[in-house]
Design a protein that fits this description.
Blueprint (H helix, E strand, L loop, with lengths): L2 E4 L9 H4 L9 H10 L4 E5 L5 E10 L16 E9 L8 H14 L5 E7 L3 H9 L3 E10 L10 E9 L17 E2 L8
Parallel strand pairs: 4-5, 6-8
Antiparallel strand pairs: 1-2, 2-3, 3-4, 5-7, 6-7
Length: 192
């Protein structure tokens, strides 16, 4: 049995089972503590019956600075962002990632965001498939977003910027069709 709860400081010492994975981004302790302090309801862990952390999601709510509103459709309004989502290899395929994502979506809905967004490696077919089943679509492809390639085939890897409209975005203003064909560079993330 796996249960979900908000992350506590002591949990950071028990995330190794999740973080030993080439597809999982690892951050400094201060980064994790920052999320815990600022967005505690959006840093959620999955814990098994032995009190081991077997997955987690880190998220936040954000919007572009007001000065960027002059950019029109390039301006990102109040939205939820999935910073990291991972499940320990032995626990994959049990719906834990879906449960964590849904919990984050609920926390973001409570903040009245317009949409959710996330970046995922273009090669991570399992994650992309799960997100699509949950209603996410590719908004754009960010060429060479990741400065490594876990397959060893190149020096970098593309990311898909995926989005899902939440209840506030009834007209689906912040998603698009065929986003896979909309290529941008990492430098243009906030300008395209």
């Amino acid at each position: 049995m796996v249960s979900l709860r908000e992350c506590q400081p002591r949990d950071l010492l028990n995330m190794n089972m999740c973080n030993i994975d080439p597809l999982t981004e690892n951050y400094s302790q201060s980064f994790y503590y920052h999320y815990m302090a600022k967005w505690s309801s959006m840093f959620i862990v999955a814990e098994n019956q032995h009190n081991e952390i077997v997955g987690y999601v880190m998220g936040k709510v954000e919007e572009d600075p007001d000065v960027l509103k002059i950019m029109g459709d390039r301006y990102l309004p109040w939205h939820g962002h999935v910073t990291a989502l991972t499940v320990a290899k032995a626990y994959r395929g049990q719906g834990i990632a879906r449960r964590l994502t849904k919990a984050l979506e609920r926390a973001c809905e409570a903040q009245n965001v317009w949409f959710m967004d996330l970046f995922v490696r273009a090669s991570n077919e399992n994650a992309i498939g799960m997100y699509r089943k949950m209603g996410y679509s590719v908004y754009r492809r960010v060429v060479a977003y990741y400065s490594d390639d876990p397959t060893g085939k190149s020096d970098s890897e593309d990311a898909f910027d995926m989005r899902k409209s939440l209840s506030r975005d009834k007209d689906r203003r912040y998603v698009r069709e065929n986003g896979e064909n909309h290529h941008i560079s990492p430098d243009d993330i906030y300008h395209a």
